[in-house]
Design a protein that fits this description.
The protein is of the alpha+beta class. Helix content is 26%, strand content 31%. It has two domains: 99 residues, FAD/NAD(P)-binding domain (3-Layer(bba) Sandwich), CATH 3.50.50.60; 151 residues, D-Amino Acid Oxidase, Chain A, domain 2 (2-Layer Sandwich), CATH 3.30.9. It is built from six helices and 15 strands. The strands form four sheets. A four-stranded parallel β-sheet has the order 7-2-1-11, covered by helices on one side. Strands 3, 4, 5 and 6 form a four-stranded antiparallel β-sheet that branches. The chain has a four-stranded antiparallel β-sheet with strand order 12-15-14-13, with no helix packed on it. The longest helix is centred in the N-terminal third of the chain and has 17 residues. It is elongated, with a radius of gyration of 21 Å.
Amino acid sequence: MDIGIVGGGINGLCCAWELAKQGHQVQLYERDRLMNATSRASSKLLHGGLRYLENREFRLVCEALRERDTWIRRVPELARPLRLVMPIYKASRRPSWMISAGLFVYDHLAGKSILPKAQRLSAEEILRRDPSLDSRGLVGGLEFSDGRMDDYALGQWVAEQARRLGAAVAENSEVETIAGDGCITTADGETRRYDRVLNIAGPWAHRLLDKSGIRIPYQLDLVRGSHLVLAQPCSQACLLEVPDERRIFFVLPWKGRTLLGTTEVRQTLDG
């Protein structure tokens, strides 16, 4: 088929790559530069979503863990293993047995993973790895595996794979409207008809539908994830609880600095 894709983030690029592998003709439109919006502002993690186990989303976690290992195996120069520590304090909202059970299931869902399994750590070992952690009430913790990646570089790598298979990838090519008959009209007035159109514009997907006069019975529930990049280096990747809350956040090494986040709050495109 002849397929048009709107959106040059990681999802649009991976779809272009996969469809080109299947032999379809693919044209991807990106209004700015590839991987230049939300796809470039991630936590830089390749993970199975440990916290989703609390919601019993086992299938999602299992699929994500398989993909984590696949990326690390396929592109080792851009995706690497990462060991994270989760300290446990007397005041932690999640008891030690719950975290241990969760990580046991996490490793089990990963199957025959290329990464080592979780292990217990003493309070002394945790503080040896990162003396800046608060020692008050620290009773120990666990160490587990996930992966880290350069989201921007990985997206550019995917774009190159798609191009090699014949996909056309256009930057600075904004789509003005799409139509139910498969027509895509760009901001410069050009119109082309496709057999299928994939609207993968991320948080802007619904705005494109509105501009195109297309009504659907769904609404996007948008959230904003924010990160801080601190100047000092990170000696140990950690998964921590927000004090007096069940919410968790990451402290991660990133290019000689420390990446701290993420928060999640509801967001509109206008604010």
